[in-house]
Design goal:
This protein is an all-alpha fold and 304 residues long. The chain has one domain: MetI-like fold, CATH 1.10.3720. The protein is built from 15 helices and no strands. The protein has helices spanning 11-31, 34-51, 53-56, 90-97, 99-125, 129-143, 146-157, 161-171, 174-188, 191-198, 203-239, 250-260, 262-265, 268-296, 298-302.
Length: 304
Amino acid sequence: MTAALPAKISPRALRRQVRRAAAARTWKRFRANRLGMTGLVILLGFAVVAILAPILVDAGQLRTTEATGPLLAPPSLEYPLGTDDNGRSVLALLIFGSRVPLLVGLTATIISMVIGTIVGIASGISDGWPGGILFRITEWFLVIPFLPLALVLATLLGGSLASVILVIGITGWPSTALLIRAQTLSVRERPFIERAQILGAGRWHLMTKHVLPNVLPLVFANTTLTVAGAVLAETTLTFLGFGDPTNVSWGTMLNSAFATGAVSLGAWWFLMPPGICVIVVVLAFTLVGQALEDIVNPRLREGR
């Protein structure tokens, strides 16, 4: 009897198997990184709180007209984190305030990563003046300080939540573009790119079928680091009064605390919780980003 021949696997199914195996290896290496797992657990905790905020907190507690608590009362059994200058529970504000920074951070990061990836690949794969112009535009955005540019754009676009997302998204892409451009230039020197060009592959085919799959791991690793910067940028803009005052966020809490004079009044419970939450979330995203960077860049792992 002849042995049964193995079933023929289609190229698409083979690619799926390879991707699943790569994802499994990445997750295994990530789990071995204690700091990365610590950051992931912290982020999952904040995400669960943000998603369940409407269930955990009655929205009526956030309205100044319905607040019944004492003004700037210290922590107690009824108000574990005290109250603000309007008699609202700081804990309720903190829970509901987690939604805006995470939403703005993730959405703005998607915008900046898409712009940075497209510009980086296009400038790296293009020869002559097209690539040079894109590279100079990227450098021009890098030269301009982030905060003054963001403040000008926020003033022009208004203080809505969508405006804050757009401002952070269109000002945070240059560093990603430079990183992807450098990776694209490295990929261009590999033999399979030369073979594809000899076989008649166009620039669009090279960008989407050969360069993009090779830079995506670096894009994903850089995304978590970019989210940390976006969360910090949202807090900064709202703290300076350029956010939407109708939306509760950690930045608006800090703005209200300083406007009320919480520092001089000794109302630390109004000032410290939102600041600590911002620091913890930014640190958690940074830990996850560094863990992913170690995985996609073996040289970092070998040097430690």
